[in-house]
Amino acid sequence: MNWTDERVEKLKKLWSEGLSASQIAAQLGGVSRNAVIGKVHRLCLPGRAKAGGSTTTATRTKRPATSAPRAPNYAARVATRTVTRTTGATVMKEEMEIDAIEDQDVAPVRNVVVPMSRRLALTQLTDRTCKWPIGDPMKEEFHFCGNDSPDTSPYCTFHAKLAYQPSGERRRAR
Q: Which of 33, 54, 116, 141 fits a disulfide with 50 by CB distance 3.0 to 4.6 angstroms?
């Protein structure tokens, strides 16, 4: 199979529209997916456009540069920012979604009672004790809650409410 000027132009057009190498090979006919990939590399074509109009191969979500987990009184909203990056000798503009954090006024619940844990080690747990882990397992002070648990749950009443939330509440928390 020879790469004629017509076929090369059609390859460039289909590649810029975001078709995959397999789809392009099927449309050109008489050429394999690997032949299309090789020709794309030899032509030094930029990354394939995503189907739907974006001009890059990957759009990634960028998170704020904090290592601490988000506090529960913050809500994230997604914003889009255009960023310029280089790929080899090609400069590409890419739209990135970033999480912007905004303050929310949340009134803390005042009637929450956190039970005292019995600080049991793994070997001290039984069928009737709460198996909620507390702390970092790699640290010496790691322990389990150890309070009494009902017959049907591995956790005490307090930790069962944390572990088993109705799906409606989980959706609202996001």
A: 54
